[in-house]
Amino acid sequence: MTFASITFIVFFTLVLVLEGITNVRVVKEKLGNHFYIVRHMILLIASYIFYGWWDWRFCFLILFVTVTAYLAGLLHQNKTVVVMAVCVVLVVLGIFKYYNFFVESFCELFSISSAGTINFILPVGISFYTFQAISYIADVRLGRLQAERSFVNVALYIAFFPQLVAGPIVKASEFLPQLSEDRNVSIRNLETGLQIFMFGLFKKIVLADNLSVYVDEVFRYPTVFSAGTIAMAVVSYAMQIYFDFSGYSDMAIGSAKCLGYDFSRNFNMPYISKNVSEFWKRWHISLSTWLKEYLYISLGGNRKGKIRTYINLMLTMVLGGLWHGANWTFVVWGALHGAALCVHKMFVRTHRKGSAARNILYAAATDIFVCLCWIFFRADNISTALVIIQRMFSFDRGVRHLYSWTIVSLIFMIVCHIKAYRRSASKEFCSGYYAVMDLGKVSSLIIWFVFIGLTIGLAYTGASPFIYFQF
Predict the structure, then answer these.
(1) What is the end-to-end Cα distance of the chain in Å, rounded?
(2) Is residue 231 within 8 Å of 392, Cβ to Cβ?
(3) Beta-bridge partners for 225
(4) Which residues make Cβ contacts (< 8 Å) with residue 217, sequence separation at least 6?
């Protein structure tokens, strides 16, 4: 069950109806002190149905992780218990996601048979909900959050279906307090949430999915295409992964908003970043924040000298790259970003506020670097990535193909960025926005239904799963 499916629409409508019924005054009065428990149980059961739609066996795994986190929270004063709980969660992630990768890499290094591999089915979203479980354990241990006595609340935090399979990674200290508030389905929340959801759906099924056709073909046969076509495919992938993942994040944020819950923004116009450090403040914000708070700072951050700071940055980004997938291409991708962050940190003190022209130049240079790194992220293996880079810079001849959706997507992105820049209160660190309208106005309703029509009419009808589902 994915957000971009009829099944999800039916499922989500039923959840909204059930949650709405609990908010009816008569029902609310009858439920009395059990009001919150009933509401949370509806969402929890719905979340497990949503997750079990892929494979019902995955529900037992997420339940095990939840029980581990819950017990660790109750026993948070015992450091040994907390460390063991975090290790258990990491072992679950390691076995299902990285066991075969490390076994095969070891066997390949020493030229021995890889008979020790196991045919695991990678549970959907395991990277996300294990990180949320660790977030809960760490926040309670560090005193940022009181241990939750309700198992239902902890289970709902880890399994809440809008963000369950592909984020954003919501911190326990941000979500759990909302469960004690009277969050409900309302016309205002529906009006805002549905618009954010549709905006994300448009980015996914119209822009990202149409771009995927071109990107997949060029990356599958890089030696066939010309240097210019390969370069356009690389740029297309940079936009595809942005529209795909930010689109999913928008749909997750919009779905949660419809139910009355608030998630923080996960993307903030990353391709206007003037350096790699700013890029990671704008790209996959929930992950970069998680890595900074729970990994980089735990390693010592910048508190133990320059050399140790650079080592911590590299370790954080390499592990962040590996988090994305069990492949050496992700390790290289993370290492490249780690190296760039180290270089930027070396010269950040000498950097001064520049003119608009200089900022555009910095942003262009950052985008070129990010696009080159995306080659390793997208390629099936390192050798393919190197072939793509070699073909792109050798100016070899081949099939030339100017893809119209690349131009359309680029224009869409530029227009939205200009609109956001004009509305931004701070031009120094421009912030994006959701194009939420007042649907009480006739003009807004006309735009709304036209937008829905365009989304349906221009949608790519082929099967194109969300990129981050594999992580």
Answers:
(1) 17
(2) yes
(3) 399
(4) none
The three-state secondary structure class of 399 is strand
Distance CA 349, CA 358 (A): 17
DSSP state of 296: I
Residues 162/248, Cβ–Cβ less than 8 Å: no
**Is the residue at 258 inside a domain?**
yes
Dist. CA 315–CA 334, nearest whole Å: 9
Q: Residue 241 sits in which domain range?
A: 189-275+351-470
Look up residue 154 and give its DSSP letter: H
Q: Which residues contact 295 (CB under 8 A, 6 or more apart)?
A: 315, 316, 319, 320
Neighbours of 415 (CB within 10 A): 10
Torsion of CA 371, 372, 378, 384, to 10 degrees: 150
162 and 219 inside one domain: no
Q: Using the Cα atoms of residue 27, residue 30, residue 35 and residue 38 in order, give the sign of their dihedral.
A: negative
Say what the pLDDT of residue 416 is: 85
Query: Which two three-digit tokens encode residue 47?
Result: 């979340």
Are residues 43 and 150 located together in one domain of the fold? yes
Angle between helices 227-258 and 187-201 (to 10 degrees): 170
Which amino acid, residue 457?
G
The H or E element containing residue 386 is: helix 382-394
* Alpha-carbon span 413 to 405, nearest angstrom: 12
Q: Could you report the per-residue pLDDT of 68-125, keeping only the tens digit for each?
A: 999 999 999 899 999 999 999 999 988 888 877 777 777 777 677 666 667 777 788 8
Model pLDDT for residues 29-60, shown as the tens digit of each residue:
777 777 788 888 999 999 999 999 888 888 99
As to burial, measured by CB atoms within 10 angstroms (0-12 exposed, 13-18 middle, 19+ buried), residue 240 is buried
- Of the two residues 349 and 263, the one the predictor is more confident about is 263
Q: What is this structure's pTM? A: 0.89
Span 197-252, pLDDT tens digits = 999 999 999 999 999 999 999 999 888 898 889 999 999 999 999 999 999 999 99
Residues annotated as catalytic (active site), given as ranges: 324
Q: Which helix (DSSP H) or strand (DSSP E) does residue 22 occupy?
A: helix 6-22
DSSP 3-state assignment of 261? coil
Type of residue numbered 343:
V
Encoded tokens for 442: 């006739």
Q: Specify if 76 maps to a domain.
A: yes
